[in-house]
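Why do we care about 3D structure at all? Because function follows from shape, and shape follows, mostly, from sequence. That is the central idea of this module. The next example makes it concrete: a single protein chain, its amino acid sequence, and then its structure expressed as tokens.
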Amino acid sequence: MRKVLLAAVALAVLAIGPTALAGSGAVQITSTGFNPANVTVQSGDSVTWTNADKVGHEVDVAGNSCKLSLAAGQSGSCGFPSVGTFAYTDPTATGFAGTVTVAPNSRSVTLATSRSLNIFGDAVTLSGTVSSKAAGEHVTVVSSPAGLPATETTVTTTAGGNWSLQVQPRVKTTYQAKYDTASSSPVTVSIRPRITLQKIGRRQYLIVVLSANSMAGKRVNIARWAFGHWVTFQTATLQAIPRTPTTSDVYVSTLVRRGTKLRVFLPADQVGPNYLDGHSNYIIS
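And the structure:
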């Protein structure tokens, strides 16, 4: 009867009670006591007690509202959000006692990017290391594109606690890595539109701009290299391309001396808040 009552109480406690967190300690309850009796975790972690005995046991943690009643074979956890030393006992078994020492949470995760300035369509590698230096840890990378909802991607660390993730931001995007309760410093990758300039005939040129949203209606500056810098001598307005919302283009005719170096610029006042100004490749007329 005692086992049945303990099982019923345990189910109720486990259903509504303690929540296991990312970090944890583990204690076995045997016929002779807790093993190990004393555990050390970090603030925000949990400790899980597993009843490996053939009879029911209880866990009563002083200074913590979590109390467990565990039938044989059952497990339960208590969270420890605060730093300190917490004594615990099994009030139903003489001599069953131990302590949970909770140290300040020193976990950390780093985040670096292979480049902070990117051209639309190119990939960027995010990477970092977790403080445990262990493989198999989970890191959540939060991606926050400008003007769009944030998304999360979980990666697993390799040897040395290292992790990496390849991303392809389409607009200015801020990234942050999370490991357990720790967060990295955020990093931002800024984006330039991808602009190409192509000669398609005698004095005929094609300008193509790729971005997350069409740049149709925006002004581009056509410049030639003269006296050591780029000099704008003509402008053109980008046109929409049906069924391709990421692409805009414009055909231009221009009279320049043969052998002139040409490049197209998309000024900052034309690209909008989520992009940096951009420029094309250069060609020789």
